[in-house]
Amino acid sequence: MDDQSEQSLHLDVRLTRKTMTLFFCIGLFMVSLVIAALTSVKLEQFHIGGLTVLVPAGTIAFGLTYLATDAISEIWGRNYALCVVLVGMVMRLLMMVLILYALYAEQVFPFISPTEGWTEERQAAFVSVFQAGNRLNIAGMLAFGISASVDVLIFHYFQKRDAGKNRLWFRNNISTIASQILNSIIFISAGFLGTVPLAAIGSLILGQVIIKILVAAFDTPAIYLIRNFAEGRRLLDLRG
């Protein structure tokens, strides 16, 4: 067997289902983080029983980032999860820079100009969406950096405390719910204060908390499936 074949075989052997799961979790985390940042500028009304609350459209996508970090914490440990959180913050900063370029490149660089089909009306609509998104991106970076780190630390604490007990469901939910409440308070206050009435701020925080708790409850089966696939267990194995 030549060197190239040996190298190819070596790479194939190392590409395990655990590695594939890590790629999936990181991909889920990054995609959800970007989608949440871009779509949170749109506010939606959720009618839950007799209660009507305002919810940013990116709330569900953001909730999926916690599924990803909790899965990484469970399978690979705290340091991997914190590393993904740090990279996520860098990617959000890069996204903000690229959005600023798209908004104002023609005004900054004399050698760039819009095409004839790009009218002032289209530019105004473009700016109205993405300029608001930039404020939300900054608010999201602040809220995300704090709450995601808290999520990882809480999850790791209960993982160590409950070692040998079947409490993955507990640490997944308690870490996600606590950090999501913290995230909602920081994000909504920093992102919308001064742009909507105070009553709407309260409704937004309440709405985000309700939806994120529901997402946390529904992602519990998902984290078991992800862990079981990565570790080669039966998919419905509820141990650990």
TrEMBL record:
InterPro entries: YhhQ. It is a multi-pass membrane protein. Pfam families: Vut_1 (PF02592). GO terms for cellular component: plasma membrane. Keywords: Cell inner membrane, Cell membrane, Membrane, Transmembrane, Transmembrane helix, Transport. Involved in the import of queuosine (Q) precursors, required for Q precursor salvage. This is Probable queuosine precursor transporter. It comes from Maricaulis salignorans. The lineage of its organism: Bacteria, Pseudomonadati, Pseudomonadota, Alphaproteobacteria, Maricaulales.
